[in-house]
């Protein structure tokens, strides 16, 4: 609605327009003339992506990718590890064998990528490695958490240590979530500023 109105004014000038203005008007004309096709492509793409994410390979790649997303990736990872630690501690306290516990907890984290890492920990235990060694090999935990797991394994209080690990991650997630809004605000302002700049360059 806005750009076509300016476009009519510009047409009356009968002169060559700057490249920024031509680009703005060209983009506007394309969106106005082909929006039904763009809408269909958008909807079909959404269904295609949704169908792909339901496959084993698609879910694995998405679960791995979302852990690397800017700002929220680390929050998702730590929230998932907090769930893992909490569930592991509860199962261990209930007397469930550690191999079986890892198999159960791997499904509870609801992340295919982390599930494979946790199952690798179970395989390491079956090969005779210690819980600390398998935790180090998984590359899932911070040095502080690895130290807590090691202390828990040596003292026979793995369940208590993993409860502390869960509390540690949950506190970090809560803190980072509060910081997230203050981090997103300048990004949104920058995006809006760029959009306004493009319109200003194109029209003025």
Q: Could you tell me how far the N terminus lies from the C terminus, measured between alpha carbons in angstroms?
A: 17 Å
Order of helices and strands: HHHHHHHHH
Largest sheet: none
What's the β-strand tally? 0
Number of continuous helical runs: 9
If you compute it from the alpha carbons, what radius of gyration comes out, rounded to the nearest whole angstrom? 26 Å
Nearest-integer average pLDDT: 87
Uncertain stretches of 5 or more adjacent residues: none
Overall structural class, as computed from helix and strand content, comes to mainly alpha
What general form does the structure show? elongated
Q: What proportion strand?
A: under 5%
Helix content: over 70%
If you had to describe this structure to a student in words, what would you say it looks like?
With 204 residues, the protein is mostly helical. The chain is built from 9 helices and no strands. It has helices spanning 2-11, 19-53, 56-66, 73-93, 98-108, 112-126, 131-138, 143-155, 158-203. Helix 7 runs antiparallel to helix 8 (143-155). The longest helix is centred in the C-terminal third of the chain and has 46 residues, at 158-203. The model has no long low-confidence stretch (mean pLDDT 87).
């Amino acid at each position: 609605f806005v750009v076509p109105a300016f476009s009519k004014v510009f047409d009356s000038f009968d002169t060559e327009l700057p490249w920024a203005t031509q680009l703005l008007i060209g983009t506007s004309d394309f969106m106005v003339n082909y929006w039904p096709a763009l809408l269909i492509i958008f909807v079909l793409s959404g269904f295609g992506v949704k169908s792909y994410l339901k496959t084993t390979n698609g879910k694995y790649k998405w679960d791995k990718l979302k852990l690397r997303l800017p700002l929220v990736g680390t929050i998702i990872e730590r929230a998932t590890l907090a769930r893992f630690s909490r569930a592991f501690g509860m199962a261990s306290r209930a007397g469930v064998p550690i191999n079986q516990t890892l198999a159960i907890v791997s499904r509870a984290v609801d992340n295919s990528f982390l599930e494979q890492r946790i199952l690798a920990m179970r395989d390491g235990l079956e090969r005779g490695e210690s819980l600390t060694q398998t935790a180090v090999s998984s590359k899932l935990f911070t040095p502080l958490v690895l130290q807590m797991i090691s202390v828990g394994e040596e003292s026979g209080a793995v369940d208590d240590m993993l409860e502390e690990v869960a509390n540690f991650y949950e506190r970090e997630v809560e803190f980072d979530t509060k910081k997230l809004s203050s981090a997103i605000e300048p990004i949104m302002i920058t995006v809006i500023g760029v959009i306004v700049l493009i319109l200003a360059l194109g029209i003025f």
